[in-house]
C-alpha cells in the first residue's frame, strides 16, 4: 500500500518528545529553525509523563524540587512558543538520506514519510519495559495490586503499601506514598541504596518502615492483594505482612529497537556522539540519555545542556555561514 508523504521539509526533526526533546524544540525555535517532533507515545513528556508524573525531581537547575508532570507542562509551554509540528503515537522505523538533495526520509510505523534536512535523536532509553518482580503470584495481580510506577497518587490513598527496591524510584515512591497511604514499607535486598544521598536520609528519617536485606517471596489474596511474604536473604527466615498494593522498582529493560538499524555507531545500547553531539552520520545529532561519550552522566540536567549543543551544530550543518553560538537568549527581544 502506498504510504503518505508529508511534503514539507523541516530544518530539524526531533525524534523523542521527552524533556530533552522538548527543550531542543524550544532552542531550535530560538535558532529560527522549522521543527517537527515525532514520538511513539500518545502524549509529550516521555518517561516522566508516562511512568513518573507524580515524582519530584531535584536535579533541575532553578527548582529546589519540581513535580515531573509540572516540569513537562512547563517544557511543553516553552516549546510551543515556536509552534513545532507534533506527531504522536508514531514510531520512526527507518531513516534514509537521499543522494539527490541530502534530505532525510523518516518512515514511521504509520506508513508516513517525514522529510527533514537534519535530525536530533532524543529518544531517552528507547523502548522501556519494567522488570517484573521475581515472586510467586505476582503476574496474577499486575495492574490490580502490583504496579511498577505511580501515575496517579490518589489511587493509593488509604492503602497499606509495600515498595520493593533501593534506587531513586523506590525511595521517591516511598516518600510520595507516605503522604496518602495508611502505611508504607520498603524492602531492599541490601543495606546500601543507589538513590541520591539526601533522599535516603529523608527516607530513613521518615515514618516509612525500611527493612534491609529483605526480598519479596510471594503475594497473597483472592481478587485483591491482602498480604505478602518477604524473606531475609541472609537467614532465609520469612515474614508475612499485611499489604494492599506492591510497587516494584527493579528497573527497566530498554531497547533501541529500529534505531539499531539506522547505521549509527552504537555502544552499550546508546548512540555514540562527539563533542558536537554529532553522530557518525552527517546531519544526525543526538542528546540526552540515549547518547554516550567519555564521562557521560545520565541526568535530565545533562540532557538540557546537550540539547542546545545539538541544535546549534545542526544549524551550522544546515547553514555553514551561520554562527555556532548565536548569543545569549537574554539579549533577544521579547
Textual characterization of the structure:
There is one protein chain. The chain is an alpha/beta fold and 334 residues long. 22% of the residues lie in helices and 30% in strands. It contains 7 helices and 24 strands. It has helices spanning 19-30, 46-51, 68-80, 138-141, 168-177, 197-204, 300-318, and strands at 4-10, 12-15, 35-38, 56-57, 66-67, 85-87, 92-97, 104-108, 112-116, 119-121, 127-130, 146-147, 160-164, 183-188, 209-212, 214-221, 225-232, 238-241, 245-248, 252-255, 266-267, 270-272, 284-286, 291-292. It has a 5-stranded parallel β-sheet with strand order 6-3-2-10-23, with helices on one face. A 5-stranded parallel β-sheet has the order 12-19-13-14-15. It has a 4-stranded mixed β-sheet with strand order 1-9-8-7, with no helix packed on it. Strand 8 and strand 9 (112-116) form a beta hairpin. Helix 1 (19-30) runs parallel beside helix 7 and helix 5 runs parallel beside helix 6 (197-204). The radius of gyration is 22 Å and the shape is elongated.
Amino acid at each position: 500500500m502506498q504510504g503518505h508523504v508529508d511534503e514539507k521539509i523541516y530544518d530539524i526533526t526531533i525524534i523523542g518528545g521527552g524533556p530533552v526533546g522538548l527543550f531542543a524544540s524550544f532552542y531550535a525555535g530560538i535558532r529560527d529553525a522549522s521543527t517537527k517532533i515525532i514520538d511513539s507515545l500518545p502524549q509529550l513528556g516521555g518517561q516522566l509523563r508516562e511512568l513518573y508524573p507524580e515524582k519530584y525531581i531535584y536535579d533541575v537547575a532553578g527548582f529546589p524540587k519540581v513535580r515531573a508532570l509540572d516540569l513537562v507542562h512547563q517544557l511543553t509551554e516553552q516549546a510551543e512558543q515556536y509552534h513545532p509540528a507534533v506527531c504522536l503515537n508514531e514510531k520512526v522505523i527507518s531513516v534514509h538520506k537521499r543522494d539527490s538533495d541530502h534530505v532525510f526520509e523518516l518512515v514511521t510505523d504509520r506508513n508516513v514519510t517525514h522529510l527533514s534536512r537534519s535530525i536530533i535523536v532524543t529518544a531517552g532509553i528507547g523502548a522501556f519495559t519494567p522488570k517484573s518482580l521475581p515472586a510467586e503470584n505476582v503476574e496474577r495481580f499486575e495492574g490490580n495490586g502490583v504496579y511498577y510506577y505511580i501515575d496517579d497518587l490518589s489511587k493509593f490513598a488509604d492503602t497499606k503499601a509495600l515498595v520493593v527496591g533501593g534506587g531513586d524510584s523506590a525511595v521517591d515512591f516511598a516518600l510520595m506514598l507516605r503522604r496518602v497511604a495508611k502505611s508504607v514499607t520498603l524492602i531492599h535486598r541490601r543495606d546500601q541504596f543507589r538513590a541520591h544521598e539526601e533522599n535516603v536520609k529523608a527516607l530513613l528519617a521518615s515514618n516509612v518502615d525500611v527493612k534491609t536485606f529483605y526480598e519479596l517471596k510471594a503475594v497473597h489474596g483472592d481478587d485483591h492483594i491482602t498480604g505478602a511474604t518477604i524473606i531475609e536473604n541472609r537467614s532465609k527466615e520469612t515474614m508475612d505482612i499485611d499489604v494492599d498494593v506492591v510497587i516494584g522498582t527493579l528497573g527497566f529493560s530498554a531497547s533501541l529497537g529500529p534505531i539499531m538499524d539506522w547505521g549509527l555507531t552504537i555502544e552499550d545500547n546508546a548512540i555514540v556522539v562527539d563533542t558536537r553531539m554529532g553522530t557518525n552520520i552527517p546531519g544526525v545529532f543526538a542528546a540526552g540519555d540515549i547518547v554516550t561519550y567519555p564521562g557521560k552522566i545520565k541526568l535530565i540536567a545533562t540532557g538540557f545542556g546537550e540539547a542546545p549543543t545539538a541544535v546549534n551544530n545542526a544549524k551550522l550543518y544546515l547553514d555553514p555561514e551561520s554562527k555556532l553560538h548565536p548569543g545569549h537568549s537574554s539579549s533577544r527581544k521579547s
